[in-house]
Structures are given as structure tokens and as C-alpha cells.
Amino acid sequence: MSFKKVDLSFQSCKSEYDDSDVVIFSVPMDWTTSFRPGTRFAGNQVRVDSFGIEWYSPYREANLRDYKTSDIGDLELPIGDVENSLKVVYETSKKIYEDDKFPIMIGGEHLVTLPVLQAAKEKYDNLHVIHLDAHTDLRESFFGRELSHATFMYHAHKFLGDHTIYQFGIRSGDQHEFDWAKKHIYQRLFDFEGLDKAVEKLKNVPVYITIDIDVLDPSVVSGTGTPEPGGMQYKDVLWAFEQFEKLGHIVGCDLVELNPYLDPSGASTAVAVKTIRELTLILQKNISKNKST
Fold it and tell me: What is the pTM of this model?
């Protein structure tokens, strides 16, 4: 498997794959979406709109142009084929990890995180996950499917193990999901309180960060398939980013569930673009810190 630069990349992320430390890719998959499909279009819309914001982040005091980041574009998936689409995501992630690089993934539905976690777990045995989301995603099956955007974290737990998953911002799910969570994972309802303490606990272990954009309130992000009132404001997310910078070993990040065509104003995509910029810089700075020690 080999990767080439794409004509349309995220902002200034135009490094060759072989030279890069971080690899951006997007997964145009919404095959199991249960309400409003359209997340398959997020990756390319994020790339187009990324030229509307600065490359420099005053939050991180860092510039994307100062780091080697490649963008390999949308993955080519067999439309409607869940299992084989996930295989493509897994093989892509596995290759990135085998080459000692780190992924930034743009979804797609949240199920696409599952194969990335599988590949990350193979590389980093003591993998932990920080999961920002409105929904628990802990069902065993959904509408008769075991593999679904509503089940991915339950199935990730099978290979991650007890007490390796930290959820924040959760405010929707079936009762049995909340009951199950109390026994097997850390789950903070309604807000990000305690994230700083979780980061302190996890600062010496490999951590993957997955963010469902619907963790934000619909007043901030209306462009998502299953909006849930009562969510975070963007300043809450910026605070979370400050905590992430304290982690010792971030091994990958993703942002999923943006549905750009549900928000014709473009505001939701702008939120996604800024989030991808910040995650990329957080990951790049984390890599640089580890290289220097």
C-alpha cells in the first residue's frame, strides 16, 4: 500500500507521505447512519473550507506550515459494504502506524473509528481512549447490526478492556448503556468536568482521542446527523484542547459525524476545520516533545 499527495489538501498540509509525521485522511462512509445521512461528504468539504481560516493557531502559538503533515485524501470505499469499508480503514491505519506515523482522521460516521482503534491497539498494547460525544455508542447491536455508529465503542471495549475508555459530554443513550458503562468504563455525563484529572492519570500511556462533533450543542453545530440539545460550547472544547496538550503520548485523533449539507451557512464546517487544525497541532507538538526527550 502506498499513498500520494492529493490535489486538494487540508490547508498547508502538503508534505510527502514519506517525509511526514502526521497523516490526515478522510473516510466517506455513512452506511449505518440511522437518522440523517451525509457525513460521507465531510472530508472534502472540510478541505475546501480549510482555506477560510488561518494556518496559525493563537491557542497553540503554532503554525501548520512549521510541521510535516501529509493529506492522503478520501479513502476509496466499496459503497454500502460496511465490513469491507472498515477493512480499508483498518489497512490504511495499520500502514500509517507501521511506518511510525500518526493519523488524523475525518469521518464519516463514528463506526469508522473502530478499525483505527484496532490498528492502534496492535501498535500500542496499553492503549486508552478519550471519547467526546453526545451519545454513549455502547449498544451491542442497533437495528439488527452489530457494527454500527451506535455500537462502535462497545465493540472497541472488547479488545481495549475495562477502564481504558473515558467518555465526556454524554447525554443520550439507552438505559442499559448507562448501566453497562458504570461497570466497565469511565463516563462523565453532560459536561467535561474531570477531564483534567483523567489527563493527569493518562499522561504516561498511549492515548487516542475521538471527537463526535455532536458533543457540541446544536446551537453551535447544526450540521450533524443526530443533534442533541444540552451540549458543549466551543470554549469548552478549547479548554479540552488545553488538557490534551498535557498528555504524554497521543497516538492519533479523529473528528467524525460532520454533515456539512445540513448546515448551508457553513458554520458547522468552520467548527470542524478549526478543530482539525487544533488537533493536528496538538499531535504535532506532542510528537516533537517526545522526539526531544
Answer: 0.97
